[in-house]
């Protein structure tokens, strides 16, 4: 489970977030590119390739798409308890 105390500083406020690479628990973003490569309407990359959430999903279908990225993240760096 992503650590909501270790969010990337650029996440918009809200339920969904990405963790910072500074989270050394093994669940900090490793800049693999999966989430923002697959769903650029919600996720973006910073100057280091790390992911953050640019806007929260606003309907059930978008929520499902974000959930898919959460499930696909190889290290669990996407959270929904923010
Ligand atoms: S899928 Fe996970 S590790 Fe990869 S860029 Fe997105 S948050 Fe980071």
How much of the sequence lies in strands comes to 5-15%
Instruction: Specify the CATH architecture.
Output: 2-Layer Sandwich
Shape: globular
Structure annotation, total helices: 2
Q: Estimate the helix proportion, in percent.
A: 10-25%
Number of strands: 4
What structural category arises from helix and sheet content?
alpha+beta
Major sheet strand order: 1-4
- SSE pattern: EHEEHE
CATH class value: Alpha Beta
Draw up the topology in text.
Elements (H helix, E strand, L loop, with lengths): L16 E2 L15 H5 L4 E3 L5 E3 L6 H13 L5 E2 L3
Antiparallel strand pairs: 1-4, 2-3
The structure holds iron/sulfur cluster (SF4).
Describe, in short, the structure shown.
This protein is α+β, with helices and mostly antiparallel strands and 82 residues long.
Describe the structure.
The protein contains two helices and four strands. By secondary structure, it is of the alpha+beta class. It has a two-stranded antiparallel ribbon. Strands 2-3 form a two-stranded antiparallel sheet. A hairpin with a 5-residue loop joins strand 2 and strand 3. The longest helix is centred in the C-terminal third of the chain and has 13 residues. The N and C termini lie close together (12 Å). The model has no long low-confidence stretch (mean pLDDT 96). It binds iron/sulfur cluster. Iron/sulfur cluster (SF4) binds next to helix 1.
């Amino acid at each position: 489970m992503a650590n909501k105390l270790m969010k990337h500083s650029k996440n918009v406020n809200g339920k969904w977030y990405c963790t910072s690479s500074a989270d050394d628990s093994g669940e900090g973003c490793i800049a693999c590119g999966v989430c923002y490569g697959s769903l650029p309407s919600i996720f973006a990359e910073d100057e280091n390739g790390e992911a953050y959430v640019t806007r929260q999903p606003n309907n059930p279908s978008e929520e499902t798409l974000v959930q898919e990225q959460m499930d696909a993240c190889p290290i669990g760096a996407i959270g929904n308890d923010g």
